[in-house]
Amino acid sequence: MSVASVRTQPFAGQRPGTSGLRKKVTVFQQPHYLENFVQALFDILPEQVGPVAGQTLVLGGDGRFHNRVAVQTILRMAAANGFGRVLVGQGGLLSTPAASAVIREHGAYGGIILSASHNPGGPDGDFGIKYNIANGGPAPEKITEAIYARTQQIQAYRTLPGAGEVDLQTLGRSELGAMVVQVIDPVADHAELMEKLFDFDAMRAWFAAGHRMRFDAMSAIGGPYARAVLEGRLGAPLGTVVNGEPLEDFGGHHPDPNPAHATELIAALSGPDAPDFGAASDGDADRNMILGRDFVVTPSDSLAVLAANATLVPGYRDGLAGIARSMPTSCAADAVARALGIPCYETPTGWKFFGNLLDAGRATLCGEESYGTGSNHVREKDGLWAVLFWLNLQAATGQSVEALVRAHWARFGRHYYSRHDWEGIPVERADALMAALRAKLPTLAGTTLQGLRLAQADDFAYTDPVDGSVSRQQGVRLLFEGGSRVVFRLSGTGTEGATLRVYLERFEADARQHDLPTQQALAPLIALADEVAAIRQHSGQAAPTVIT
Ligand code: G16
After folding, report:
1. CB-defined site of ligand 1, < 6 Å
2. Dist. CA 480–CA 345, nearest whole Å
3. DSSP one-letter code for 543
4. Are residues 297 and 409 in contact, defined by beta-carbon separation less than 8 angstroms?
5. Whose alpha carbon is nearest atom 19 of ligand 1?
6. Residues whose CB falls within 8 Å of the CB of residue 1, separated by 6 or more in sequence, listed in order
7. Second label for 450, Cα 20 to 30 Å away, from 284, 287, 409, 484?
8. pLDDT tens across 445-460, in order?
9. Each residue of 36-77: pLDDT tens digit?
10. Distance 388 CA to ligand 1 centre (A)
11. pTM of the complete model
12. Which residues contact 31 (CB under 8 A, 6 or more apart)?
């Protein structure tokens, strides 16, 4: 089988965003589009990381439309570029956290994950690709920027034109040119890892005692993983996992586990006959949502509660080295870190920023407001891991989700939190909004807005404490006396227009004030956000499109 060099030309706009390159499926279907990006990656790896010849690559995706075609393309290109072996999930499938686990478990050189995460799928939906390094985590900016630079110069890519499709349904080994293709069980490594971290006996007893749970896999890749652990190893009744069959278009739904898109689950968790525990994961199974009966937990609170109770779980019995959260995530975790006497790191949005802290042993738990929670067990956020953590806490304490959160608020105070998304803003308008806001920053500190005194107004910059790299312009922060915050930033994961994210947070120590409706509690902050950033005027929209 001979290697061919196929001539090509650069495509504009192949710069990875918050988490890889995400575009419409129709964009990825253009001839050479995927190939250019993959070759750019393979071209920069030797210089950025080390030679690829003979190395092991991990490959898999969330099964969305175009996954099957893309996996075959990448296999042929990996062989033509000299990789020695590719570990690919059966059917071309691997959840994002499982890919991270497989990279680490097998000491692989790195991995390619095909996913656009929570973005809708299908022929008119989104597709995505990202590269993870040997620690199992997303490639840092240095690598993603090098890939982008290479895509802008690329002239040719290497492939095996004569190669047929590799059978990805049958577990085991085959050859593609000089490269070995090893089709692996996508679930096994991850399930083993979960069993090492959590008290499976206690959780089995919780189900055996008649407690009920509903896990909504949103017709995405989380289904097989959740079924194997919850209904398989833990003995939860069949049917505990709903929408458990991965579909190429996620059944037409938006596989994003939050109050806007998991309305069915929220309804199912309502009322006296509802299950005790509800949970969901997203398109590639790295996000999670946690619910009790008639009770929704915010991701920021989730991180804080897990951190405060971590020693109840076998994998974290010895305590935490530190906690890390993305800047827009609420400060609930900071309060826990203070009480535990451990550091809390504030990083830019994007899981890639946690990698160095985890590798250096500085942080054990990480979390983001965008429904991502994880730990040092892998280098990605992990939906099922978070769900099992909550399950383990309920089994260990005998308390409900709501009771655990209320006790947490009583001890640490409540951080009311909400995110308002303004989607589909024309890019120039969104850029103009952010530029105007940044220009205003020097005049804002010390002023009083809606009765709140502004202590600090800045554009968040992060210096990685491990390698000293600096990331600037990571979001405009308004920090008020008393702990309230408003943060503005543009999303880096969308595929159409711009999305302005406005993150709103109010700290309330007084337990008598812990039962306000969230939007009401945040009303002054919502009003001042619009006043300061002139959101309606710039966007031309009357209201946010999504409130979580
Ligand atoms: C990705 C990143 C997360 C980030 C989220 C939102 O999640 O991995 O770290 O918090 O996007 O990013 P943005 O606000 O820029 O849209 P996922 O689940 O989409 O991979």
Report:
1. 18-19, 117-118, 286-287, 326, 349-351, 368, 370, 372, 491-493, 501
2. 20
3. S
4. no
5. 117
6. 79, 160, 162, 163, 176, 177
7. 409
8. 889 988 899 999 999 9
9. 999 999 999 999 999 999 999 999 999 999 999 999 999 999
10. 22
11. 0.94
12. none
Measure 487 CA to ligand 1 centroid, in angstroms.
Answer: 16
Tokens of 344: 């809390």
Query: Which residues carry out catalysis?
Result: 117
Residue type, 243: N
d(CA 302, CA 160): 47
CA 289–ligand 1 middle distance (angstroms): 15
Query: What tens digit of pLDDT does each residue of 116-136 get?
Result: 999 999 999 999 999 999 999
Angstrom CA distances, 416 to 109, 262, 273, stand at 42, 20, 28
| 3 state DSSP class of 284 | coil
Q: Distance (Å, rounded) from C-alpha 196 to C-alpha 326?
A: 27
Q: What are phi and psi of 153, to 5 degrees?
A: -120, -5
Candidate of 62, 258, 370, 545 to mutate for ligand 1, largest count of ligand atoms within 8 Å of Cβ = 370
Atom of ligand 1 minimally distant from the CA of 349: 10
Q: Which atom of ligand 1 is nearest to the CA of 286?
A: 18
**DSSP-derived 3-state class of residue 153:** coil
Which regions of the chain are under pLDDT 70?
Answer: none
**Separation of alpha carbons 302 and 285, rounded Å:** 17
Name which residue sits closest to atom 1 of ligand 1, judged by CA: 19
